[in-house]
Design goal:
The complex is a heterodimer of chains A (1082) and B (592).
Chain A (H helix, E strand, L loop, with lengths): L1 H11 L23 E10 L9 E4 L5 E3 L5 E7 L3 E5 L6 E4 L5 E7 L3 H4 L2 E3 L4 E3 L7 E4 L1 H5 L6 H4 L7 E4 L9 E4 L11 E4 L2 E4 L10 E7 L2 H4 L10 E6 L6 E15 L10 H17 L10 E3 L5 E3 L7 H5 L3 E13 L3 E13 L8 E15 L2 E15 L21 H7 L36 H4 L8 H7 L1 E18 H4 L7 E22 L2 E2 L5 E2 L5 E24 L3 E24 L14 E24 L3 E12 L8 E12 L13 E15 L11 E10 L2 E8 L10 E14 L4 E20 L10 E22 L4 E11 L1 E6 L6 E4 L2 E4 L6 E4 L2 E4 L3 H13 L14 E3 L14 E4 L5 E11 L2 E11 L2 E4 H7 L51 E2 L2 E12 L10 E16 L17 E2 L7 E10 L1
Parallel strand pairs in A: 1-7, 13-16, 49-53
Antiparallel strand pairs in A: 1-4, 2-3, 2-5, 5-6, 8-9, 10-15, 11-12, 13-14, 15-16, 17-20, 17-54, 18-19, 20-21, 21-22, 22-23, 23-24, 24-25, 25-28, 26-27, 28-29, 29-30, 30-31, 31-32, 32-33, 33-36, 34-35, 36-37, 37-38, 38-39, 38-40, 39-47, 41-42, 42-43, 43-46, 44-45, 47-48, 48-51, 49-50, 51-52, 52-54
Helix pairs in contact in A: 8-10
Chain B lengths: L1 H18 L22 H14 L3 H5 L1 H9 L3 E3 L6 H5 L9 H21 L7 H25 L8 H4 L13 H18 L16 H14 L3 H12 L28 E5 L28 H5 L10 E3 L1 H8 L10 H6 L19 E2 L2 E2 L15 E2 L24 E5 H16 L3 H13 L18 H17 L5 H8 L5 H10 L1 E2 L4 H4 L15 E2 L15 H6 L8 H4 L21
Antiparallel strand pairs in B: 1-3, 2-7, 3-6, 4-5, 8-9
Helix pairs in contact in B: 2-6, 2-7, 6-7, 7-9, 9-10, 10-11, 11-15, 15-16, 15-17
The chains are: A mainly beta (1082), B mainly alpha (592).
Chain lengths: 1082, 592
């Protein structure tokens, strides 16, 4: 047995920070005038057991040894020396020798601080070591040492199995996914703040208010929130004051500068672009695809095309600007014997990085938390008010291509910034009034508002290339949100109330009340303009929309909590309760069209006006129960059951049971456990199984409604109105269910200085709500109906390790986590085995949203190669293998062997889901300095970048391109095509755009490692400020400084659509940010 | 204070405990009336029956393609844009073509709305009001199935709203055969005749609602389709004799193709699809069933399909040279062109003066007065003789095409002239070309100012035999009277002409086409002759057997496993007639 321990000791020597002097090897004795004597002693733990391997050294020297297997040691030391005793997991001791040769038995006390960490698990708390479910604990204190403007981005890369992806727009809500894609609907986790489920977004909360964060990942942990926990739960508690603490004021703030990286995409300048246009035109003509090129592109006598004037716009410089962000937070806290208070004031402001009306975001938050101990009742009240004001880009990736009657499809601003022709001016005063040169502009007062435009004569009839500066300056999208969340919690100690004070039993009744009110005001304005005869917004289509959305959410929770210890070793914790939540939503929207200039943007100034309103109610009732039991902290059991009823589901199906069970076994507490607890303080095996629910669909989905007075007919030329059932409604909508199995172990060593967690999970999602095709014979207007039709499985491994060492001057932490994900769609709906979404396909039996396209063969280099391909077609009785293909075009593999390449020759080309995600962060402190680095990344990951792959490398059309494309259209003397890039044309007239077909050519390897944060801080000594200020810290922080990847595109950690993973559709770039910050208390 | 707190906590606890009952989850939808709450009284069901009418003027029914696909299918007209409609002209549409579904989709909307009423009023006799609502719903239901079986041959039959529309599995209806559908239509129309009033009742009964006469006429047509000539003759002659209401041919043929209260719902009209006149329409085009709105324009887009590109039309469909020459084959008693030609085909003709034909404006095409030698082609790239019917080319009320669902001319879906010709055909089938049959034909001829058939130099041989009389009706009088109207495709199918080599050759000849690009070939290349000097193609060159019907759209088959492999067009299976096909009689008409 002891040999085993020794082996362990040897292994642990590998870990970097163990005090590692060799047993028995005396170190050179320091030259000292004092007399050295041989000192012996025995080191034991609190229970008197010997502690082998503990370090003993003479303070201030490197002279030391370690205890032997019986805890004994001998050390030569000066007779006046002070000996230091250390052992991981125990509190260090110092003992003066005072001339003694035997200093007797030294008892080391366990350092319980880490081990006894308490975790909030929903309707209660639990010791971290007793957890049987999968709960990730995020060290909020550590995390807050690094500045983040958003709670979700704080978590990026920090937790195994939690993927946070984001769009870089200020105020944008990151996409948080816990353990894969749990549903075809929305998949953000449920956020619970101070015991109150606040929904699936926490956009308007300040990260500065956070005290703790826990993430519940499996069914067992989350089951107490059963109905809404299918996508995981994030539990946040906010700061409270401390008892008997005088008023204390903390300030923290930063100022930062945001810049968009400008070398991600290269685009052509005016000379290159003109030459490219000329080449594309000539290639089109040579292949009998006559195309119009604007008269502004002039071919010189040297054969080189030039733009006729000096215009050479660098659109990147014109569209992007330096953004700034700042955050200021003042927190006042304190407390007396029976109460505490904490008041936080927070201001955040981010000015975006694109010229124009947006994006930018600012937020004001006030939070007041109070606690009162009144005899046997503990009260806690919290109220938070926030106001946010967000301007989004007028055309983002959410609405850039949305068809709006009469509004041109301009595409997202971001894409336009790269594909706009360098031959178009950014600004041009003459476009305020074009009436003299463009007769059709006569009906418009302001035309192009001084922004550069397409001149059809010079540029050609370019459609869809609308100056992004015009659109983003002229059009507005603003949302203002006011939100108040008031919560109150009373906890009654019943035994105390009854003047019974049993030592080992505690019974409390808890009441949670919460009311939140959110009031959002939307303002969108799309002014009329005249850009070209084909890209214009008529006066009759210009539109001002003003909308208000009001959300009320009331929550009542009653719980009873019993905690007891029986016969010393049986620990029981029981929670039972009833909760009721009622959400009420009111929407009102009014819009006006056609305004007189100059614009006064009120609805009453519009010529045509209309309005609509709607209201929705959502109710959830739940009965909850949980039993946590452990025997001697050795055998752990947790059983949870929740019964939920939701108004969103049909009457017969609205109640669901969500049970779970989990078991844990702490091997380290077994008598037979061979390893000393000073080495391994925790070894726990745990497993869980449970069912979670989801009802993330809209209200009233199961109610069949009439379209009243909506259908017009006429008799004798007089209108009459009719009513009918126009949509097919599934009257039986039931809970989505996720059956989750999880197995893992936790290992803590050296009093948790070193921690490992390993886990495997499998989530089987069933009865997923999915849009099932409504047969056309039904005669309904909805093509799909939501039904509990689909199912999906996610499984993966999660592994995390952390190590910290605070025992030396150089203190440091290292955290590493890695997770894998395997996804499989196991059913879509009866009779349906696949769904195609653009370039992604979801097939039953396969992962969601795999890439789907043609298998690339190569470039057709010569007539002989083209003839060879066509011979395959002729053999099948067809004319051409790729109708309209020429030398220089790409060819593809004929999958079905019919001799022709068409839509039927597509195949699955790979996966867009990263298979491995990892996070690595570290922090080191020395004297007053500290340095923190946080990184994360993904492996086995492939992406299509809309801007680069689908636009800048496109072989057709009039948009700007990557300079790589200048290489195309090159032939040798024999007429063989020699370019690396396929041929480029102005227009495609073949049956399919052969050179732009989606194939492996358009898929990039996107493995990445992102250096998310690097922060260097200095903590000033308190005495420097004469006690006026304490805890003064100054820091400089860099965010998103570098990403190690071969990927060409912004935001490799973009937030994709559910069915289109791996498709980066113009995600707004996360800027590089440098922040300067200060914290102080007084 | 302490006690108060306990009491408060207990009160809230108790309150929420007792609150946890089922009814709290029964939230009310304040945005829309639920189906259960919809009134099942006369008021509610009157609204429901209007919804059924609404659907017959949609894009896939009579608002556009549900009308024009049959015009294309016929041999009198062809697809002059050579795109979009092409597979419906050539009869070879691919099963992946989503347009296959439009007609199906919109008629099944109609079936949905009408089935609702039929189910809510399951029997006659509750009240007159209910009987009449049920009667109208039965008529519209039958009309929908008439179209479905004529376009798609086989289709699922649905008659019970409560049973068949409840669940998604319940929507996976199985196929029924064309024969079964026809039996259903006959049954429903027979009942509708009992339930509905005659148009003589006036008001809306004379203004667009389905009447006893409409039901009898549609039944007559269905019986003709089904070769039940004896039964058909009974109903058709019943209409002529006024048993189902008072009808008479209008004096001026052109009154059938103009908007305005003096023309619409006239004495000849038996069932008419109602569109609002151009000056009183709403503002929203309802292209799909999703954007249905009370502010709809309530017009049709057949005009947009027929009108010349040069005048802003979509230039999709043109009249054939065969039809043009058919009109020219016989002149009126006062030696003029057949006035029906003026309203069917918009060419310049010397005979068209402002005083002739009656009700016409002379040589006009939209606001433009044509001179001799002026040529308007439907499509600048491919030529084509412009169709005038159901457009404002000749009406003089609009100076340009307003494209979209904007044309306000009601579609006279069944008019008395058609019934006269069908009655003559039925008699011919039963007894041969009797005096009665000739009398009915003469009614139609006389309105066109032609001499009696017996006196016709060109066509007096028509009465020589049943075959000759049939040839005359099918290839002379019906095309002249009903030319470029919906129905020719139905006729070709019911006569079996896709299934007989000689007949198929004949319709290929009728539908032969010369493609002329006005810009590059010049106007002088435009040829009105028949037979054509140069035939570039005919509409039926690439006809695939079975494709006289539209195949089911693949997505429709995917969404409903009950539909199996679809119809004859999906599988490319030739259809075989259960009746004998009348042979070609070359002497009659413009046959080769």
């Amino acid at each position: 047995m002891r040999k085993v321990i020794l082996i362990f000791c040897g292994m642990l020597a590998l870990t970097p920070a163990t005090f590692a002097s060799q047993s028995g090897n005396r170190l050179p004795i320091a030259l000292s005038p004092a007399d050295n004597i041989s000192v012996t002693g025995k080191i034991v733990d609190a229970s008197g057991e010997p502690l082998p391997g503990a370090s003993v050294y003479v303070k201030g020297t490197t002279n030391g040894t370690i205890s032997d297997i019986d805890g004994n040691f001998t050390l030569n030391a000066p007779d006046d020396a002070i000996l230091v005793f250390t052992f991981v997991g125990y509190i260090s001791q110092e003992i003066a020798v005072n001339g003694r040769t035997n200093i007797g038995t030294i008892t080391m006390q366990e350092d319980n601080q880490e081990i006894e960490q308490v975790v909030v698990i929903g309707y209660g708390t639990q010791k971290k070591v007793d957890l049987t479910g999968s709960v990730a604990i995020v060290d909020a204190d550590e995390m807050k040492k690094v500045s983040n403007s958003n709670i979700s981005t704080m978590l990026e890369g920090k937790v195994a199995g939690v993927q946070i992806t984001s769009d870089g727009q200020p105020g944008a809500d990151p996409n948080v996914r816990i353990r894969g894609i749990g549903s075809f609907g929305s998949t953000p986790p449920l956020y619970v703040i101070d015991g109150v489920p606040v929904g699936t977004t926490i956009r308007d909360f300040s990260p500065n208010d956070i005290a703790t964060i826990q993430i519940l990942k499996d069914a067992s942990a989350a089951a107490i929130y059963g109905s809404r926990a299918a996508n995981g739960v994030v539990i946040i508690t906010t700061k409270n004051g401390k008892k008997n603490q005088p008023a204390r004021v903390d300030y923290s703030g930063y100022f930062g500068i945001d810049k968009i990286t400008n070398n991600i995409y290269e685009v052509m300048d005016a000379d290159q672009f003109s030459q490219y246009m000329g080449s594309a035109k000539e290639r089109s003509e040579a292949t009998s695809n006559p195309s119009e090129l604007g008269a502004g592109y002039v071919k010189g006598s040297d054969g080189v095309y030039k733009w006729y004037d000096e215009t050479n716009t660098n659109w990147f410089d014109e569209v992007f600007k330096t953004g700034i962000r700042q955050n200021h937070n003042v927190n006042i806290s304190g407390g007396g014997d029976a109460h505490t208070y904490n008041v936080g004031l927070d201001y955040f402001n981010q000015k975006g990085t694109v010229e124009g009306a947006g994006p930018d975001y600012q937020r004001y938050t006030v939070r007041v938390n109070n606690t009162f101990d009144v005899k046997f009742i503990k009260f806690r009240t919290g109220i938070v008010y926030s106001h946010s004001d967000q301007n989004t880009m007028s055309r983002g990736n959410d609405n850039g291509n949305t068809y709006i009657q009469g509004i041109p499809e301009t595409g997202p601003i971001l894409r336009q910034a790269f594909t706009m022709q360098p031959t178009i001016k950014a600004y041009d005063e003459s476009t305020w009034c074009l009436d003299a040169t463009v007769p059709a502009a006569a009906d418009y007062k302001y035309d192009s508002y001084g922004f550069g435009r397409v001149d059809v004569d010079k540029h050609g009839d370019l459609r869809g290339f609308v100056n992004p500066l015009l659109v983003n300056n002229l059009w507005e999208r603003n949302t203002k949100v006011d939100r108040v969340v008031a919560t109150a919690n009373a906890s009654v100690d019943i035994f105390n109330m009854l003047k019974l004070n049993p030592a080992n039993h505690k019974l409390s009744y808890n009441l949670n009340l919460s009311y939140s009110k959110t009031y959002a005001k939307d303002h969108t304005w799309m002014a009329s303009y005249f850009y070209t005869p084909n890209d214009k917004v008529d006066k009759s289509n210009e539109q001002l929309t003003k909308a208000t959305r009001q959300y009320d959410d009331a929550l009542v929770e009653n719980t009873i909590n019993y905690e007891g210890t029986l016969a010393e070793k049986h620990h029981i914790n029981v929670v039972a309760g009833i909760t009721y939540e009622n959400e009420y939503t009111q929407n009102f929207s009014e819009w006006g069209k056609n305004f007189p200039e100059p614009y006064y943007l009120q609805i009453n100034n519009a010529e045509d006006r209309d309005a609509n309103s709607s209201e929705y109610q959502h109710v959830i009732e739940s009965y909850i129960g949980r039993l946590n039991y452990d025997f001697d902290q050795r055998y752990l059991l947790s059983v949870t059951a929740r019964r939920d009823g939701s108004s969103r589901l049909s009457k017969e199906d609205r109640w669901g049971w969500f049970p779970s069970v989990s078991l844990g076994w702490r091997l380290d507490r077994e008598a037979f456990f061979p390893v000393d607890e000073h080495l391994i303080n925790l070894l726990k095996i745990r497993g869980s199984y449970g069912i979670l629910g989801n009802e993330n669909i809209g209200e009233y989905a199961y109610m069949a409604t009439m379209a009243r007075q909506n259908q017009a007919y006429s008799f004798n030329n007089t209108k009459v109105l009719g009513s009918s059932v126009t949509t097919f409604v599934n009257t039986a909508i039931a809970w989505e269910k996720k059956k989750s199995t999880s197995v893992g172990f936790d290992l803590g060593m050296f009093s948790n200085q070193l921690e490992f967690t390993f886990e495997w999970y499998k989530n089987v999602s069933e009865d997923l709500l999915y849009g099932v095709a409504v047969p056309a014979n039904g005669g309904f207007s909805n093509a799909n109906v939501t039904m509990n039709a689909a199912s999906m499985e996610n499984s993966g491994f999660e592994w995390s390790a952390s190590y910290h060492n605070y025992k030396h001057k150089v203190k440091y932490d290292i955290n590493f986590n890695v997770s894998t994900l395997k996804n499989e769609v196991t059913a879509l709906s009866a009779g349906k085995d696949r769904q195609v979404d653009g370039r992604n396909i979801t097939t039953v039996g396969e992962e969601i949203g795999k890439f789907y396209g043609w298998e690339y063969g190569g470039i057709i280099r010569s007539q002989a190669e083209l003839d060879e391909l066509n011979a395959k077609a002729i053999a099948q009785g067809k004319d051409e293998y790729q109708p309209g293909a020429n030398i220089g075009d790409c060819w593809y593999v004929d999958q079905n062997g019919d001799g022709v390449i068409d839509a039927d020759d597509q195949k699955v080309l790979g996966s867009g889901l990263p298979k491995i995600n990892f996070g690595l962060s570290g922090r080191v402190e020395y004297k007053g300095f500290d340095l923190a680095v946080s990184t994360f990344g993904a492996l086995k990951y492939k992406v299509i970048d809309d801007i680069y792959d689908l636009n800048l490398m496109s072989c057709y059309g009039y948009g700007n391109r990557s300079p790589e494309m200048l290489n195309s259209n090159q032939f040798d003397a024999n007429g063989n095509y020699i370019s690396e890039q396929p041929a480029c044309y102005l227009k495609n007239s073949a049956t399919l755009g052969w050179n732009d077909l989606f194939s492996e050519r358009k898929i990039q390897k996107a493995n990445y490692w992102k250096i998310a944060t690097v922060e260097l801080g200095y903590n000033f000594k308190d005495e420097w400020f004469n006690g006026i200020l304490t805890g003064v810290r100054a820091y400089v922080s860099g965010q998103n400084l570098a990403t190690i990847t071969k990927y060409k595109g912004y935001n490799v950690d973009f937030a994709p659509g559910t069915f289109t993973p791996g498709y980066n559709y113009c995600s707004y770039p996360t800027p590089k940010t440098v922040m300067f910050g200060l914290r102080a208390s007084f | 204070m302490k006690k108060f707190n306990i009491l408060l906590a207990a009160a809230v606890a108790a309150g929420s405990l007792s609150g946890c009952s089922e009814d709290l989850l029964d939230v009310k939808n304040n945005n829309n009336q639920t189906t259960e709450a919809f009134s099942q009284s006369t008021d509610g069901l009157s609204e429901a029956v209007i919804a059924a009418y609404n659907h017959i003027r949609m894009e896939g029914t009579y608002g556009r393609v549900g009308y024009t696909f049959d015009v294309c299918r016929g041999d009198e007209a062809w697809n002059s844009s050579q795109q979009w409609y092409l597979p419906f002209d050539e009869l070879n549409t691919a099963i992946t073509n989503e347009m296959n579904n439009w007609v199906f989709r919109d008629w099944f909307y109609t079936i949905n709305a009408s089935t609702y009423v039929i189910t809510k009023i399951p029997n006659k006799g509750v009240s007159t009001a209910f009987d009449r609502l049920r009667g109208q719903a039965l008529f519209i239901h039958a009309l929908a199935y008439y179209n479905i079986m004529g376009y798609y041959k086989d289709a699922p039959i649905v008659t019970d709203y409560d049973k068949d529309y409840n669940t998604i599995d319940g929507l996976y209806w199985d196929m029924n055969s064309q024969e079964e559908i026809i039996e259903l239509i006959k049954k429903e129309l027979t009942e509708a005749i009992e339930l509905l009033p005659k148009r003589d009742e006036g008001g809306e009964w004379a203004g667009g609602r389905a009447t006893q006469g409409a039901a009898a006429a549609l039944l007559g047509k269905v019986l003709m389709f089904n070769h039940e000539f004896k039964e058909a003759q009974k109903y058709l002659e019943g209409i002529i004799n006024g048993e189902y209401g008072t009808y008479s041919l209008v004096k001026n043929y052109g009154d059938n193709f103009q908007e305005g209260s003096q023309f619409e719902n006239n004495s000849e009209s038996i069932f008419e699809v109602q569109f609002l006149d151009h000056d009183v329409q709403g503002t929203q085009d309802e292209w799909t069933p999703v954007n249905v709105t009370p502010d709809a324009t309530q017009g049709h887009a057949i005009e947009s399909n027929f009108a010349a590109g040069k005048y802003g039309g979509w230039a999709d469909i043109s009249a054939s040279n065969w039809l043009y020459n058919l009109f020219k084959s016989e002149r009126t008693v006062d030696n003029k062109l057949d006035p029906r030609m003026y309203w069917t085909i918009a060419t310049y003709e010397d005979d068209w003066t402002t005083s002739y034909p009656a009700g016409g404006n002379g040589n006009f095409y939209y606001g433009v007065k044509m001179k001799k030698g002026d040529l308007i082609v439907t499509n600048d790239g491919n030529g084509g003789i412009p169709i005038a019917k159901y457009t404002n080319a000749r009406t003089g009320i609009l100076s340009q095409v307003v494209t979209g669902l904007r044309c306000g001319i009601n579609i006279r879906l069944i008019r008395l002239a058609d019934i006269y010709l069908l009655a003559a055909e039925a008699i011919n089938e039963n007894e041969g070309p009797t005096a009665k049959a000739v009398e009915y034909v003469d009614k139609v001829r006389e309105r066109a100012n032609l001499c009696k058939l017996a006196a016709s130099d060109k066509y007096k041989g028509a009465t020589a035999s049943a075959d000759a009389f049939f040839e005359y009706l099918a290839n002379v009088e019906r095309p002249r009277e009903l030319g470029c109207e919906y129905g020719r495709g139905f006729d070709l199918i019911r006569w079996g002409w896709f299934y007989d080599d000689a007949r198929f050759k004949q319709i290929k000849d009728h539908a032969s086409i010369q493609l002329i690009n006005v810009a590059t070939d010049g106007n002088d290349k435009f040829d009105f002759g028949y037979p054509l000097q140069k035939v570039d193609k005919t509409s039926y060159d690439s006809y695939i057997k079975g494709h006289e019907y539209i195949p089911y759209y693949q997505g429709t088959l995917d969404a409903n496993p009950g539909l199996g492999k679809g119809n004859s067009a999906n599988t490319g299976t030739p259809n075989t007639p259960s009746f004998s096909i009348r042979p070609v009689v070359k002497e009659i008409g413009l046959n080769l």
